[in-house]
C-alpha cells in the first residue's frame, strides 16, 4: 500500500478536482484519496491530495494561504465570471491603463467582504449553487470575509476594445479569484471576467514541488505524513510517557504547547502522532493519527 502523505499535483486544464482524485486512486492503489481545496476545470496548478491517513489531515490544512497568477479581461462580463460562460455584457475598456487598474485594486485588497460567484460549489439549502444556476434559478450568495494579502498587476495589454491584465494574488482559503475579476471590472465600470488561472502555491507547497499526472504515473512522489506535519504546523516533541498518552487521545496535563491553534506532536522517534491545542493549563487532542 502507498504510504500516507501528500501528493502535490499540477492539475491540467479541463480536469475537475474529482477527476484528479479518481486518477490518483488508481495510481496509489487506494480508495483513501482526498483533496484540500478544489480548482475549477479551467484552472491549472497546485492541487494538494491526501493519501490514506493523510486524508484526515486535509481539513486542518485548508486555512493555509494560496497564491495564484491569473489573467482578467476587462470590458466583458460573463454568466460564470470566467471564460467558460457566455458573454452577457460588453463595454469598451480601450480607455483603461494600468494606473486606473491599480487604483481599483486597492479596495479589493486586505480584509474584505466578498460575494462568491453564483456558479461556485457553495451549497444553498443542500444544493450546489452552480447546479441551481444551471437549472435556471437566480442565486444570490451572501458576502463572506476573506483576506487578499496581495493583488497586483504584473503585465497588461489592450486586445481590441478589451483590456487584459495579468495579476498575482495571495489570499486566504475561500477567496474566489473569479469574484475578484468580476468585482474589478464592476469597479472600473466595464465588467470583467477571468480568462486564465493558475494556482502556484498552497501553504508551503509550491508549483516547484508539483508533478503532472504523466510524471506521477511514472514515479509517484509522496510527501510523508511526518514531513507534512512539520512543514504545516508548530511542533512539540513528546516524552515516551506523553507519546503513550497521545496514542490514546488523552489530555496532556500541565503541558504548555507555546502557541495557540493546532500543534503537531511527535514521538521521540520523530513520528507524527496527533494534533493538539492548548486548553488552559493542559493540551488536548484535536485529531490522533495513529
From TrEMBL:
Keyword Isomerase among record annotations: yes
GO molecular function terms listed in the Swiss-Prot or TrEMBL record: tRNA pseudouridine(55) synthase activity
Record keyword Glycoprotein present: no
Q: Which UniProt keywords apply?
A: Isomerase, tRNA processing
Query: Any idea where the Pseudouridine synthase II N-terminal domain is?
Result: 25-177
- Which InterPro entries does the protein's record reference? PsdUridine_synth_cat_dom_sf, PsdUridine_synth_N, PUA-like_sf, PUA_sf, tRNA_psdUridine_synth_fam2_C, tRNA_psdUridine_synth_TruB, TruB_C
Occurrences of domain tRNA pseudouridylate synthase B C-terminal (ranges): 178-220
The chemistry this enzyme catalyses reads: uridine(55) in tRNA = pseudouridine(55) in tRNA
Q: Which PANTHER family match?
A: PSEUDOURIDYLATE SYNTHASE TRUB1, TRNA-PSEUDOURIDINE SYNTHASE
Q: Which family does it belong to?
A: Belongs to the pseudouridine synthase TruB family. Type 1 subfamily.
* Protein name, UniProt field: tRNA pseudouridine synthase B
Species of origin: Aeromicrobium panaciterrae
Amino acid at each position: 500500500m502507498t504510504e500516507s502523505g501528500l501528493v502535490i499535483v499540477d492539475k491540467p486544464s479541463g480536469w475537475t478536482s474529482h477527476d484528479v482524485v479518481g486518477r490518483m486512486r488508481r495510481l496509489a492503489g487506494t480508495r483513501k484519496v482526498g483533496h484540500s481545496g478544489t480548482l475549477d476545470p479551467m484552472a491549472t496548478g497546485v492541487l494538494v491530495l491526501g493519501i490514506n491517513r493523510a486524508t484526515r489531515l486535509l481539513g486542518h490544512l485548508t486555512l493555509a494561504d494560496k497564491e495564484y497568477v491569473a489573467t482578467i479581461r476587462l470590458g466583458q462580463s460573463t454568466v460564470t465570471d470566467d471564460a467558460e460562460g457566455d458573454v452577457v455584457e460588453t463595454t469598451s475598456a480601450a480607455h483603461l491603463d494600468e494606473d486606473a487598474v491599480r487604483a481599483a485594486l486597492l479596495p479589493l485588497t486586505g480584509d474584505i467582504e466578498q460575494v462568491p460567484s453564483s456558479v461556485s460549489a457553495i451549497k444553498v439549502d443542500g444544493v450546489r449553487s452552480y447546479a441551481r444556476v444551471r437549472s435556471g434559478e437566480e442565486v444570490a450568495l451572501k458576502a463572506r470575509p476573506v483576506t487578499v494579502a496581495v493583488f497586483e498587476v504584473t503585465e497588461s495589454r489592450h486586445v481590441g476594445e478589451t483590456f487584459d491584465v495579468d495579476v498575482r494574488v495571495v489570499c486566504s482559503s475561500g477567496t474566489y479569484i473569479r469574484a475578484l475579476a468580476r468585482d474589478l471590472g464592476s469597479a472600473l465600470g466595464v465588467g470583467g471576467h477571468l480568462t486564465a488561472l493558475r494556482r502556484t502555491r498552497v501553504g508551503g507547497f509550491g508549483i516547484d514541488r508539483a508533478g503532472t499526472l504523466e510524471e506521477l504515473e511514472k514515479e509517484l512522489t509522496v510527501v510523508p505524513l511526518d514531513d507534512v506535519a512539520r512543514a504545516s504546523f508548530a511542533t512539540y516533541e513528546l516524552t515516551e510517557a506523553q507519546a503513550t498518552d497521545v496514542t490514546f487521545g488523552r489530555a496532556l496535563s500541565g503541558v504548555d504547547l507555546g502557541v495557540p491553534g493546532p500543534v503537531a506532536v511527535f514521538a521521540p522517534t520523530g513520528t507524527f502522532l496527533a494534533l493538539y491545542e492548548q486548553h488552559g493549563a493542559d493540551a488536548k487532542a484535536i485529531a490522533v493519527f495513529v
